[in-house]
Design a protein that fits this description.
The protein is α+β, with helices and mostly antiparallel strands. The chain has a domain of 265 residues: Thiolase/Chalcone synthase (Peroxisomal Thiolase, Chain A, domain 1, 3-Layer(aba) Sandwich). Helices cover 31% and strands 20% of the residues. It has eleven helices and 14 strands. The longest helix is centred in the middle third of the chain and has 20 residues. It is globular and about 60 Å long. The model has no long low-confidence stretch (mean pLDDT 96).
Length: 395
């Protein structure tokens, strides 16, 4: 163990809720505060004042610098600085990557990283009038992810573009979605997520709070036949449906990342080592292919091949992109023990900035459960990016 190695020593996540589901009344900064507090508690740090900085992903909320707001709500010391980052779907693992990078560079020794999102509570955006007493009504607007001159296609259209360009048939997209549901149902039945999840109490108008501690997005009764009956939702004659796309969800995850020096000084027990990272860019019109360049960079940095990876958490934004990325990276997407072994985002949900923090946590726990050595966590990001992280089991 080297002083500047980066280790995950504590991690916690919420259950992932459906839009307008069990976590609809919980602001993202509250979810973030809950997982921050629990991750620090699990880390064995003892003194939270040892934290050099909080690095947290968040994309869709109204709070200014969610990382700072959440650490204060968590009761962490006020002298801990915080930054909030936005790399869309890859924000949560990018926070972990930045924490590791800071440690490798010798900037600090202890970081609290992760991501949170409440898609339920995402505020509306309204264009501001450009003149006084403007006669026309103000317009609601979206969040562009690439400039007009390049093209800013909706995410569903980018999935259709990937399906067309890489010739991914509807049947394969549905099969991947079905396998995602089967694996998620098995993981829930076997209680594989229980030690990862921190219960979230949700106050009620009357009576005791409802405690949310089980992922609620999976549909365990899904069949290939039921998926085949769904109509395409983004394009007439297309292949992308609600059944082979990820969900709209709420959730958060946090991880304590520390240097090897602090592990030795404090006698901490690491959950995993951050081995390498990668990021890449692709045409926004096929943003789902972002994991390909990001993963290749992370593998090269680690000196590994894809065959040496025991667990792959490839975020299933859409079935088309998950199959296409798997093909490009020589991953057998039908291998249920290697790719998303406990289900992916199609079954379990995709709370944008929270997703990849949650996937790093899942991968670390799965490596420990099965005694594997390496895990890859990767995702596409709206606007045409990809991010990847490789971790190593040190149990």
């Amino acid at each position: 163990m080297k002083d500047k190695d980066a280790f995950i020593v504590g991690a916690a996540r919420t259950a992932i809720a459906r839009e307008n589901g069990a976590l609809r009344e919980v602001p993202p900064e509250t979810m973030a505060a809950i997982v921050m507090k629990e991750a620090v508690s699990r880390s064995g740090l003892g003194d939270p004042g040892l934290i050099d900085e909080v690095i947290f992903g968040h994309c869709l909320g109204a709070a200014g610098c969610l990382g700072r707001m959440a650490l204060l709500r968590a009761g962490l010391p006020v002298d801990i600085p915080a930054i909030t980052i936005d790399r869309q779907c890859g924000s949560g693992s990018t926070a972990v990557n930045l924490a590791a990078t800071h440690i490798w560079a010798g900037v600090g020794d202890v970081y609290l990283a992760g991501g949170a999102e409440s898609m339920t509570r995402m505020p509306y955006l309204l264009e501001k009038p450009t003149s006084a007493y403007q006669r026309t009504a103000p317009k609601f607007t979206g969040r562009p992810l690439s400039p007009e001159e390049i093209g800013d296609p909706p995410m569903g259209i980018t999935a259709e573009n990937v399906a067309e360009r890489y010739r991914i048939p509807r049947e394969e997209q549905d099969e991947l979605a079905y396998l995602s549901q089967v694996k998620a149902a098995r993981a829930l039945q076997e209680g594989r997520f229980e030690e990862q999840i921190v219960p979230v109490p949700v106050p009620q108008r009357k009576g005791d709070p409802v405690v949310v501690q089980v992922d609620e997005h999976p549909r365990p009764g899904t069949t290939l036949e039921s998926l085949a009956r769904l109509s395409p939702v983004f394009k007439k004659g297309g292949t992308v449906t609600a059944g082979n796309s990820s969900g709209i969800n709420d959730g958060a995850g946090a991880l304590v990342v520390v240097s090897g020096k602090k592990v030795k000084e404090l006698g901490l027990k690491p959950l995993a080592k951050v081995l390498s990272i990668g990021a890449g860019g692709v045409d926004p019109s096929i943003m789902g292919m972002g994991p390909v360049p990001a993963t290749r960079k992370a593998l090269a940095a680690a000196g590994l091949t894809i065959d040496q990876i025991d667990v792959i958490e490839l975020n299933e934004a859409f079935g088309s992109q998950a199959v296409a990325c798997s093909r490009e990276l020589d991953i057998d997407w039908r291998n249920q023990e290697k790719l998303n072994p406990n289900g992916g985002a199609i079954a379990l949900g995709h709370p944008i900035a929270g997703s990849l923090a949650i996937l790093v946590i899942k991968a670390a726990y799965e490596l420990r459960r099965r005694g594997g050595r390496y895990a890859l966590i990767t995702a596409c990001c709206g606007g045409g990016q990809g991010v990847a992280t490789i971790i190593e089991n040190v149990d």
